[in-house]
Specification:
74 residues, mainly alpha, 2 helices, rod-shaped
Length: 74
C-alpha cells in the first residue's frame, strides 16, 4: 500500500475519533447544564462553533496525514 494512502487512512481514523469524542463531550456538557437548570437546554453558539471547528480540522487531518507521511517516508 502506498505510504500516502496509509497516512490518509490513519488521519481519517484519528479525525473520526476526535470528532466523536468532541460530540460526546459537548452532549455531556449540555446534559449537565440541563440538570443544573432543571429544563431542556439546546446547543448554544459556542457548542456549534466548537463542533464546526472540530469537523473542519477533521476534514484537513487526513490530507495533512497523507502529505506528512509522503514527505517523511516517501
Amino acid at each position: 500500500m502506498h505510504i500516502a494512502l496509509k497516512g490518509l487512512l490513519i488521519g481519517a481514523a484519528l479525525a473520526a475519533v476526535l470528532i466523536i469524542f468532541e460530540y460526546i463531550a459537548i452532549t455531556r456538557e449540555v446534559a449537565e447544564r440541563s440538570k443544573r437548570v432543571a429544563k431542556k437546554v439546546e446547543w448554544d453558539s459556542n457548542h456549534r462553533s466548537r463542533m464546526r471547528s472540530m469537523i473542519m480540522f477533521g476534514l484537513a487531518l487526513p490530507i495533512g496525514g497523507a502529505l506528512g507521511a509522503w514527505w517523511v517516508w516517501g
